[in-house]
Amino acid sequence: MSSSTPETGAPAEAPEAPSAPERDGAGHGPLRRAVTVLLTERVVLLAALLVVLLVWMNVLDAGGYLLAPYDVAYLASALETMVPLCILGLAELLVMVSGRGGIDLSVGAMVSLTGMCFGFTVSEWGWPPLLAVVATLAAGALLGAVNGFLVARLGFPALIATLATYYAYSSLSLVGSGNKPISTAPVRDLHSMTSRVELPGLPGLPMQVFTFMLPCAVLIWLLVDRSTFGRKLYGVGTNDVAARFANVSAASVRLRAFTLSGLLSAVVAVVTVGQFASARPDAGTVGNGMALPAITIAVLGGVAITGGIGRVGGVVVAALLVAWLNAGILLAFEGSQGSRTQLLALGVLLVCSALLNSVTARRLGGTR
Is the CA virtual torsion 150, 357, 238, 368 positive or negative? Predict the structure, then answer.
């Protein structure tokens, strides 16, 4: 029941609700904004974690707790492991942003199979490296298109479809090569693609950072952030029903996303053949494979498994964080304990990043 003022009898105005800074106190406004930025701007959060990691590892280094110096030269050499995982993280970004539980478990197997194609064309057929690279990229796009056809056209769940092709592609790589790597002289000469680049004032950096990773990151950024396909990709991933009413073919967009994932896997195959100076039939599947770390990097970089959310910058910084974290763990533990601890760290990162993605999506509208 409304009250009235005694002088006029007019209804009294309700007092204005206090603003957020007034409710929380003057000192809590900037803090809350800072926390909100950290939770919603994934690149900012990852950059802060990267600083914390570097400071902490240097403290351990200064205290003599590491097996070797955690210095600039060591960090530069760790970028070799970052390059393939970053590119595969971008591949996972494309399929995950497309929605409907999009995920590609076959990227490691495609790396193995297209890597053997690259080694075979160079070694057995004597193709020039540039022509062999083009053929390898075409083979990767074809393998990715098979995944896209199963998921987008036939309606298979992405998890099941790419798990099936993971087994198929892995088997083809092993059977087709007789489970033997190709290490002929023409293949060994490809190691020059991954030599080091000397920059003034910096240690030698792996050439593949400049020739493969950065171009891929820029091209994917232009594709998803500055092109019509990118708008369709995020639209389909957010709501494919609404996209269909907007005359956007969700199946076509998802097919292209998986095709690009295969293409990027082939790029990684070229890089790994150059790094190892050998085409190995298990290059992308040995141990725990490349797929699970790539998915971890994508989720850590802010890509939502539900689709429609994810940025290239987050994936790149996440790959750098994982590479330097793994490098630090190897110096902190002796023998095989270091590799086992790396698996634990990746698992913890995956759980925490998935939880953070869920919380920010519910309460703050998602990451950026």
Answer: negative
